[in-house]
Amino acid sequence: MVTVPVRQGLEAVDIMRLRTGVGPVLHDRAAGTLGFLVPPGAACGWDLPGVSCARSGVRARSADGWLLPPRSTAGRHTDPAVLHEALGEAQRTLAAADGSLAARG
Fold first, then answer.
1. Whole-prediction pTM value?
2. How far apart are CA 93 and CA 99, in angstroms?
3. Weakly modelled stretches of the chain, pLDDT under 70
4. Helix residue spans in the chain (DSSP H)
5. Among candidates 29, 79, 36, which has minimal Cα distance to 58?
6. How many CB atoms lie within 10 A of CB 72?
7. Which residues contact 101 (CB under 8 A, 6 or more apart)?
8. Secondary structure (3-state) at 36
9. Do the beta carbons of residue 46 and residue 37 sit within 8 Å?
10. Distance separating alpha carbons of residues 26 and 34, to the nearest angstrom
């Protein structure tokens, strides 16, 4: 599972929904993160700020919930290459938006 801050994750979900599709996504409200299900080990070693990879299976606590449940998505996993690209684009988009807001204020 690839875990990212919720803001970056939501942007990536939007990017993937518009293009190729996205697999199941777990929302951990307590931690403020989204978890993308990818094949085991497929994303470990990525060098993206804020992104972490868990090698173990999904262990949803009671405070967690599905943003996109497995039954409502096309596949069991999100394509790691597509996710990597979407997370990078999301990061750039948010940085540009944050810079634009800082310039105004």
1. 0.82
2. 10
3. 55-63, 72-75, 100-105
4. 6-19, 80-104
5. 36
6. 9
7. none
8. strand
9. no
10. 6
Q: Which residues pair with 34 in a beta bridge?
A: 4, 27
- Render the burial of 11-39: b for 16+ CB within 10 Å, e for the rest: bbbebbeeeeebbbbbbbeeeebbbbbbe
- CA dist., res. 44 & res. 38, Å (int): 10
Q: Are strands 33-36 and 52-53 parallel, antiparallel or unpaired?
A: unpaired
64 to each of 20, 29, 31, 35, 45, how far by Cα in Å? 26, 6, 9, 10, 25
Residue type for position 79: D
Amino acid at 57: G
